[in-house]
Amino acid sequence: MEQAFRDILTGDAAVAALATGGVNWGAHPQGQPLPAVVLFLVSGAGGHTLDGPNRLFEGRVQIDCYAQDYGTAKRLSRAVIAALDGHAGGVFQRIFWASSRDLRDATYSEAAERPFRMSLDFLVTANV
Fold first, then answer.
1. Which of 12, 22, 43, 63 would be 83's cystine partner, CB 3.0–4.6 Å?
2. pLDDT on residue 9
3. Could you give the C-alpha distances from 26 to 29, 37, 39, in angstroms and in order?
4. What gap in Å lies between CA 38 and CA 108, rounded to an integer?
5. pTM of the predicted protein model
6. In angstroms, how far apart are the furthest CA atoms of the chain?
């Protein structure tokens, strides 16, 4: 599921044009440029019916869009939403945009160095 999810974003022309620093799971590689996209599996489990497991994964993926300025981070987040919201196909039965937050990354010591972050949550149902 993780590779297929990433492939949607890297294969989208608008996301690829804006996320010049890449799309990665778990962390943005140190020293790589921004803007970039970082993906996190927040929660997930196999689906069930009354008859037992149904071979579906149901979960929440958080996507953080980083950039040095607010406008670029916002444009990147909008491109990610356009690429994913309502997506169905391949292993995915559905991907829905659930929420978003505008943040400023607090991991940098100097306020001027802190990138802007748009954090998005998506609900995912996929065949496993």
1. 12
2. 98
3. 9, 10, 6
4. 17
5. 0.89
6. 55
Cα 50 to Cα 34, 45, 47, 54, 125: the distances in Å are: 46, 16, 10, 9, 18
Amino acid letter, 33: P
Q: What is the 3-state composition of the chain as percent helix, strand, coil, each rounded to the nearest 5?
A: 25, 50, 25
Residue carrying the six token digits 């979960």: 59
The label of the residue with tokens 């149904």 reads: 54
Q: Rounded distance, CA 29 to CA 37, Å?
A: 11
Answer yes or no: is pLDDT of 30 > 60.
yes
Candidates 109, 118, 123, 22; CA nearest to 70 is: 118
Q: Report the C-alpha gap between 33 and 17 in whole angstroms.
A: 13
48: exposed, middle or buried (C-beta count within 10 Å: 0-12, 13-18, 19+)? exposed
Q: Please say if the pLDDT value at position 109 is more than 70.
A: no
- In this structure, how many other beta carbons lie within 10 angstroms of the beta carbon of residue 40? 14
